[in-house]
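Schema walk-through. Below, the input block comes first and the output block second. Nothing else is stored per chain. Lengths vary across the set, and this one has 562 residues.
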Amino acid sequence: MEYGFLDILTLVGSLGFFLYGMKLMSEALQKVAGDKMRTILARMTSNPVKGVFTGLLITAIIQSSSATTVMMVSFVNAGLLSLTESIGVIMGANIGTTVTAWLISILGFKVKISVISLPLIGMGFPLLFSKTSKRKSWGEFIIGFAMIFLGLDFLKDSVPDINGHPEILAFLSDYTSHGVFSHLLFLAIGTILTMIIQSSSATMALTLVMCNFGWIPFDMAAAMVLGENIGTAVTANIAASVANVSAKRAARAHLIFNILGVVWVTIIFSYFLSGINWFVLKIGGASPFTSPKAIPIALSIFHTTFNIANVLIFIWFTKFIQLIVTKMVPMQEDAEEFRLQYINTGLLSTAELSIHQAKQEIMVYTKRVEKMYGYIEELFTETNDKKFYKLYDKVEKYEGICDRMEEEIANYLTKVSEGDLSILGSKRITAMLNVVTDLESIGDSCYNLAKTLMRKKEKKIAFDTSVQENMIQMFELANKSLKEMDKNVDYGYKHINITTALELEEKINRFRTKLKKDHLKSVEKKNYDYQTGIIYNDLFCECEKLADYAINVSEAIEEVNQ
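--- output ---
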């Protein structure tokens, strides 16, 4: 069997195809997944037990634990599931994949969802040309979903054809009688093979072939199955390599869960196998230690028993696993993603308590908006192209976060308003709805400023010293206005003094008027060209508009107690 440079490129291309499908699906999910999908997923995974059954069901239906964990990673990446919720689903996927092992053992085949991938792309492709953005996003989601399975299929086909040439592994029969060393060796082989083939089910089939030929005994086959459990987690970690921090943590949780499971069963390995042997004999079967024909069923029983026992043990340690992966994958300073921190899908016991929850979330929203504006100030002075485009991408990402946060908080407040509220509670909800609308408008203004600065860069426009200084002064005034707004939001819905905020607003308005007059004179005197004037005017006017939204937030809070 030869494996040349072209085959290596094919393997890399298959991996790229898979990763792009995951990225496309995840991004489309963020656009189309409204409250309904979020609510359904939240209900299905609201506690670890429900999550386990969800993972089991999905994996049993689509016949791929790798695909289930990849989908969970994309759901976490899209902010539809929390890390805790995803861990339960991933545990269930490990049990679900044993269904595949039984199908291989009894029926000798595996259902391939990749067969419907091209028809799915055929369904999604026309939607890409829709004028409605939501339909277009659905098209991207369907195509991304199909590409994941096609990519996994391409990966399996592009690795060295071990499935077609199992005789390559015949030499392993020489290493089956060295005790603990043999156990660890075959565990490592199972891990490596699954990492290469990208399918624990395919490796299981290969293990059964080797058992059938008599190359390896039952205990070594069981060790390979344990290795397959570790190897299958690699697929999720590959998918998470292009995802956000939460998705990376979910993938690491999958890996840790499987490794811990292998560790405890390795300690009692011989006793565990003896128990499986006793059970097989008890139900009237032949011993897998003496009869190769009995190994497939015995191996399926071993696989199922191990995974169920593993879940029953570690479902109680979900929080501990979450703590480990949080330390393994720390949140980077610029690794922001959309994820509500205080608002859950359900309301608290009373509407008044739910208002406090929303208030906490609005404080987070305010901080994010302020951080987004900080990127604008950096954009204005940045001269390095690579850093400029990276900052612009951050602003673009934050704009999407702002839109999504406004929608989520507003929907939550609307539900809260349907409960029994005091007069003050009703006023607070009204104020909060106004605040989130204005915060989203600030986000829009930041994005408009970024687009204007991008136009400036693309047209290679350079401001002279006076214009540059004027804009820096305007940016500083707007920044002070946002900080004052942040202080008022942080103080809460009590008697606040917005005198400073009003003074800043008046100062910004006067400065904007002055800049506009000076700008018209400069255009008449031809101090700079027309294009430069447009960019300059758009920048200081948008800053003034942003400050208007900032004062609106402070006024909305002040109105609560009037």
